[in-house]
Specification:
The chain has 186 residues and is of the alpha+beta class. Helices cover 49% and strands 20% of the residues. It has five helices and four strands; from the N terminus they run H-H-H-H-E-E-H-E-E. It has a four-stranded antiparallel sheet, with helices on one face. Strand 3 and strand 4 form a beta hairpin. Helix 4 packs antiparallel against helix 5. It is rod-shaped.
Length: 186
């Protein structure tokens, strides 16, 4: 430690050595070309290959749906025949508007029952013409009352109630019944 250090070293000259530019050499050009090719491959995957895969998948799905459609259309090939049969055996709008004839007969059977002798029943649309005999006037009034209590009867009209000499007080009656669908008259 006895010696004193001299001053710190300093650089007194300039180094003029430079590295030559090699960017024009074939190896550098090849690297740039390789870089451009890699970028183009990456872009072609995103811009071409992925779209091609989607289109191919969509075409496959379309083919499956078309084959299913063809199967359904084949099943429906006899549709006109089925429709014709359905229309032949199903009720028309006019028939649906009418009251079921079995319901009308059940009503008449319930109202007249064994009270009298049913002579004839004629049903035309919503009008029923009933003729019965072997009842008294009081029984005829009771039959009319029972008929009018039904929800399918709009109104009743007794056209004739006549008696003959041989039957005494028994009469033959003719009643006109106007029908309605349940709930229409309310």
């Amino acid at each position: 430690m006895g010696k004193k250090l001299k001053s710190a070293p300093t650089k007194r000259s300039m180094n003029l050595y430079f590295k030559p530019d090699r960017t024009t050499k074939p190896a550098t050009v090849a690297l740039y070309v390789l870089f451009v090719v890699v970028v183009l491959l990456g872009l072609s995957k995103v811009l071409v290959y992925d779209l091609w895969v989607k289109v191919d998948g969509a075409r496959t799905a379309l083919a499956a749906v078309e084959s299913r459609l063809d199967g359904v259309m084949e099943e429906l090939s006899d549709y006109p025949e089925v429709k014709e049969k359905y229309q032949r055996y199903s009720a028309t709008d006019e028939e649906r508007a009418l009251i079921d004839r079995m319901e009308v007969l059940a009503l008449l059977d319930e109202a007249i029952g064994s009270t009298g002798q049913l002579s004839s029943v004629a049903v035309n649309g919503q009008v029923v013409q009933v003729q019965f005999s072997q009842v008294t006037l009081a029984q005829t009034a009771e039959i009319v009352r029972r008929l009018e209590e039904s929800p399918i009867v709009e109104r009743t009209t007794v056209n004739t109630a006549a008696t003959t000499e041989e039957n005494g007080d028994l009469v033959s009656a003719s009643i006109l019944i106007q029908l309605q669908k349940e709930g229409e008259g309310e």
